[in-house]
Amino acid sequence: MTVLRHDWTVDEVQALYDLPFMDLLHRAHTVHRENFNPSEIQFSSLMSIKTGGCPEDCNYCPQSAHHGTDLEKEQLAQLDQVMEQAQAAKDRGATRFCMGAAWKNPNARDFPVVLEMIRSVKSIGMECCVTLGSLDEEQTQQLKEAGLDYYNHNLDTSPEHYENIITTRKFQDRLDTLEKVRDAGISVCCGGILGLGEGETDRARLMMELANMPAHPDSVPINLLVRVKGTPLEHAESIDPFIFVRTVAVARIMMPHSHVRLSAGRESMDDSTQALCFFAGANSVFFGEKLLTTPNQQADQDMKLLERLDLRPQESKLDEPVSGKADHALSA
Ligand code: SAM
Ligand code: DTB
Ligand code: SF4
Predict the structure, then answer these.
(1) Which helix (H) or strand (E) holds 120?
(2) pTM of this prediction?
(3) Which of 27, 128, 182, 189 is catalytic?
(4) Is 152 helix (H, G, I), strand (E, B) or coil?
């Protein structure tokens, strides 16, 4: 049985990163096979339900009001627009519909509308995930009651690099919201971004923070920075693709029961890098032509890639119990 650990030291994580590439991939793929069907990829689809004008100053994000991006600020989406996109995503094979809002936290006027969106997405038999910023206990409770399956709230980078990237909140604020989400019995989707000018220790620290939470996140999205014109990270140096692959492998070894998602940035990644990520243990992608505000790899290209790699979309897991399932033994 795979042992789930929450006591990683940074040296241990660094030692994984430093393994010879082939050894690291072999080890990660072995863990992957012990816990998942290596031919199945989970498909999530994204929609931005409230775009732009965000009061936070995340250096990477096109939606921050602090940066001069070309993005047009929009009001909260209408329920019928949401349902149209959710149904289209379902028809294309997505099992989870994820809605993102450019908020520091949800306000009292819009929050009930989001609850209604969640109930409606659930009613067509899809898993539902939202990402709305920080939450209080009452809000997590209401989200749970509306039937929410997952809450996405990323740590994004290491605690040490955090203030170079975001100054309008603290790393600890993220951990606090994650705790409330877990306590409400909602599954946690939590990961980070690579390519934010971080060093190798920052990447190891991010992985350590994710795995050392009281329960491993059920989904771990690993994003590659999408460099957007007008953001402070517009000209950030690109990272070696093999560092990205190594990070996927390290995540797979450290969080053996979690879905590791190859998230933003696939458009700038070649097919071979993505194939290596799948071998290293990535078993989920964002599917559909758009992420939140930037383009994603085209759906037909995704289907072709899956076919060339003999991979297939994972069936819906709606009948599985939610809440911390990544942190329970799946099989002996
Ligand atoms: N405002 C909420 C929050 O930050 O939690 C939810 C929406 S926010 C856009 C969700 C996540 O998108 C961020 O945590 C970050 O990981 C990711 N993200 C934003 N801009 C990105 C970019 N340019 N490249 C890669 N990932 C990005
Ligand atoms: C996550 O980790 N990545 C997604 C989702 N969670 C919400 C967002 C990616 C956003 C990429 C930039 C954009 O399209 O605006
Ligand atoms: Fe706002 Fe989220 Fe973008 Fe940060 S990542 S600026 S909190 S939308």
Answers:
(1) helix 111-123
(2) 0.94
(3) 189
(4) strand
| Phi, psi values for residue 251, rounded to 5° | -60, -45
CA atoms within 13 A on the CB side of 151: 30
Give CA–CA dist 163/292, Å, rounded: 24
CB 257 within 8 A of CB 269: no
Q: 302: pLDDT confidence band, cut at 50, 70 and 90? A: confident
Alpha carbons 70 and 76: distance in angstroms, whole number:
19
| Residue 129 annotated as catalytic | yes
Q: Tell me, using a 6 A CB cutoff, whether residue 217 lines ligand 2.
A: no
Is pLDDT of 298 > 90? no
The rounded mean pLDDT for the chain is 92
- φ, ψ for residue 301, nearest 5 deg: -65, -35
Q: What is the pLDDT of residues 217-240, one digit of tens each?
A: 999 999 999 999 999 999 999 999
- Coil, helix or strand for 179? helix
- Residue 212's Cβ-count burial label (10 Å; 0-12, 13-18, 19+) is middle
Residues 6+ apart with CB under 8 A from 273: 241, 244, 245
Ligand 2 pocket, 69 CB below 6 A? no
Per-residue tokens: 292? 């939140």
Atom of ligand 3 at shortest range from CA of 64: 6
